């Protein structure tokens, strides 16, 4: 019995170490770039967004807003107060929807260690645009968000020493994501060892809509954080998951993360919150099917 346990431990450590070696550098690079953006570029990104609100870009503004949402390093609880300040300055809800949607789904850290999944970056960007355009069409002249009680958050990057400011931000990022990152690698090692590749292919593989639907569905309860899910997702892709299923999982996961939903419920109200969930599921399913057809 002890020999069997020792052998299994050796196998699991092998899978764990291989995954760690493959992705650790991307995770570190993501943390470094994310902290750099947060410390040195965050205010510029948000000031740029404020500055374009006075320009008559029309529907094109949702494209810019979605791109800036991806560039913003804030989590949802940081994004909503910022969006509230944008709203008070007169920004339209369609631009705010595009900014918030893409900000939920992606940020500079995740772009780095999702580089192999270019499809994720594209679908998240398009999801933000789609959210903004739908608000523009169906809620033109009517308020969609309620930001009452939300004030712009106080920055934690206040150290007068630039290097210390950066290092403190980096430490917070590592602390916030490190455990989830290691947990994701551990889960991927378990999947590689004990879940047959044929099972993954049967569940998520091929171009069938069923695989995309299953990926979108499990993305709701299984998503941890971006860094923790990437190793797991790479294992699934290796085991036979289709690219469309992966794209669908990475849309529904962060969009329906419990902490994000709690914040969104406050600013949307019950009916618009249900519309948000419907939009996320429909867009993720359509995206997954289209990606499978193309890829």
Short synopsis of the structure:
The protein has 295 residues and is mainly α. It has twelve helices and no strands.
Topology:
Layout: H1 2-52, H2 60-71, H3 76-88, H4 93-105, H5 108-112, H6 118-138, H7 162-194, H8 197-204, H9 209-222, H10 226-239, H11 243-255, H12 258-294
Helix pairs in contact: 1-2, 1-7, 2-4, 2-6, 3-4, 4-6, 6-11, 6-12, 7-10, 9-11, 9-12, 10-11, 11-12
Keywords:
295 residues; mainly alpha; 12 helices
Describe the structure.
- The chain has 295 residues and is mainly α.
- The chain has one domain.
- The chain contains twelve helices and no strands.
- The mean pLDDT is 82.
Count of discrete alpha- or pi-helical segments spanning 4 or more residues:
12
Radius of gyration: 20 Å
Question: Class by helix and strand content?
Answer: mainly alpha
| Average pLDDT | 82
Proportion of residues in helical segments: over 70%
User: What fraction of residues sit in β-strands?
Assistant: under 5%
Main sheet specs: none
Total beta strands = 0
Shape designation: globular
User: Which parts are unreliable, with pLDDT below 50 for 5 consecutive residues or more?
Assistant: none
Quote the distance from N terminus to C terminus. Answer: 46 Å
Counted up, domains total 1
User: H/E element string?
Assistant: HHHHHHHHHHHH
């Amino acid at each position: 019995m002890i020999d069997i346990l020792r052998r299994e431990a050796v196998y699991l450590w092998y899978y764990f170490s291989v995954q760690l070696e493959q992705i650790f550098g991307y995770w570190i690079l993501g943390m470094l770039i994310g902290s750099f953006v947060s410390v040195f570029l965050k205010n510029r990104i948000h000031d740029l967004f404020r500055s374009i609100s006075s320009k008559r870009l029309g529907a094109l503004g949702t494209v810019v807003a979605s791109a800036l949402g991806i560039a913003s390093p804030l989590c949802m609880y940081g994004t909503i107060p910022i969006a509230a300040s944008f709203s008070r300055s007169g920004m339209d809800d369609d631009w705010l929807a595009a900014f918030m949607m893409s900000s939920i789904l992606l940020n500079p850290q995740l772009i780095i260690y999702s580089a192999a999944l270019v499809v994720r970056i594209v679908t998240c960007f398009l999801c933000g645009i789609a959210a903004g355009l739908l608000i523009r069409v169906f809620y033109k002249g009517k308020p969609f968000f309620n930001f009452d009680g939300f004030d712009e958050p106080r920055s934690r990057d206040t150290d007068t020493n630039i290097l210390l400011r950066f290092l403190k931000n980096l430490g917070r990022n590592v602390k916030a994501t490190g455990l989830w990152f290691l947990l994701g690698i551990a889960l991927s090692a378990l999947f590689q060892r004990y879940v047959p590749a044929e099972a993954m292919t049967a569940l998520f593989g091929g171009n069938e809509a069923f695989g995309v639907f299953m990926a979108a569905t499990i993305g709701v309860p299984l998503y941890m954080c971006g860094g923790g899910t990437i190793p797991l997702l790479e294992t699934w892709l290796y085991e036979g998951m289709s690219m469309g299923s992966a794209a669908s999982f990475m849309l529904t996961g962060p969009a329906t993360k419990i902490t994000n939903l709690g914040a969104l419920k406050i600013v949307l109200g019950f009916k618009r919150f249900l519309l948000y969930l419907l939009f996320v599921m429909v867009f993720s399913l359509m995206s997954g099917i289209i990606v499978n057809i193309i890829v």
